[in-house]
Write a structure and sequence with these properties.
Strand content: 5-15%
Radius of gyration: 24 Å
Structural class: alpha/beta
Largest sheet: 5 strands, mixed
Number of helices: 22
Strand order of the largest sheet: 1-12-11-7-10
Distance between the termini: 68 Å
Length: 479
Amino acid sequence: MTKRYEDASWKESMRIKLDVNNMFAENVGEEHGYTKADVDAMQEKAKVAHKSIKAAKEAGNLGFMELPESHKEIAKEIKEFADANKGKYDNFVVLGIGGSALGNIALQTALNHPYYNLNDEARNGYPRLFVPDNVDPTRLKGLLETLDLSRTVFNVISKSGGTAETMSQFLTARAKVVEELGEDAVADHFIATTSEHSGNLIKIAKEEGMKTYYIPENVGGRFSVLTPVGLISAAFTGIDIEELLAGAAYMDQICDTDELWSNPAYLNAALQYLADQDGKPMSVMMPYAHDLKDVADWYRQLWAESLGKKVNRAGEVINVGPTPVKALGATDQHSQVQLYMEGPFDKVVTFIEVEKYKETLEIADGYEDISGVSYLGGHTFNELLTVEKQATELALTENNRLNCTVTFPEVNAFTIGQFFYMYELATAFAGELYDIDAFNQPGVELGKQYAYGVLGREGFTEKKEEFDARPEKNSDLIL
């Protein structure tokens, strides 16, 4: 059977679009807006950056760019595994944090029923999904107490198997499974998603006989949603992961050019970079669809961890990086938009608009004698949300505030795949503009090392000593 994403006209109808009109002086004024000449002046940099990105991909250093093709067969295998286990488990739990969790959450929120875990009909035999994404003791204990462990499978996600949060979750969940079901149950209730050739988790997985899937060595956590990190939980909850990869492949084709005006990933990154250089480092992502609220959370990690860097590639201290902010329309019209509208000129707002929502819901008629209420009757919630987005966009523009819009024809696996890839590529391109390594995270490591030392991990004694020697806090400053 031909898949819909194999049809060229369907793919074109599902293309997500980037609208940057409100980044330009014609719309927001000359003081804050840009000109075509400003973008054209970056074209040579874009060509150099594109060449660098292509060379890095050819050298095998940008694994996320390989995934739309390299993971086609892996996706089929994962789908077969998920289908073979359909009905065996009532609960699927992701044990991971950060890049090992945020993509899973974003996929679930975007592509499944909004009350998936509570709706048996919507799940259609697939298990409920839980992603703790933290080591808060109350939350994790409550989850393990609530689930029927005999009907639960855990996917432990850590490339190294040394992530303290993930391995703490695993140790605790494993102990509960052994306590209730016995040692022999571990292999049947745990999947390991990790490095194929090194690390603690692959050793444990082999020893325990767990089903294993591998994270490519050249794909970092925040770029890993299209690897088994994100694909397994998606497949287990009925998401079409082959269509997801097809969407990413389609965006890869669209962006295979060094021409800024033809490449949405590059143009978006270039404009965000210009804004940052002009004193607008706050990058707000504001979806007008609850389905996409956790996509903004995924973006927040991608942008912050990739672009917030102390040094450039020459080792010079530059302390750069835009600050990503997540918001949700229309919810945050009632909490954040006042700041965006009248506060400092330090933000770029990226709206996400959906042309066709999954459902249509009419607003009921009533109170015909109260004009301030009755006018709503006869409209739909779809219309209300879209109009509120467009009205907020216009209001920001009238107040000379930079904004742009990413439009989804509809929210499905194909459009989500496009979005993930477009922003991953935009991140790589922005890294070239800042002249930084967008794929490391040295600022995260020091805090981890102190924690390892305090908790007694071998090899981190020096960090424990530094921790113990930290300055005492002034009690007068604790009120």
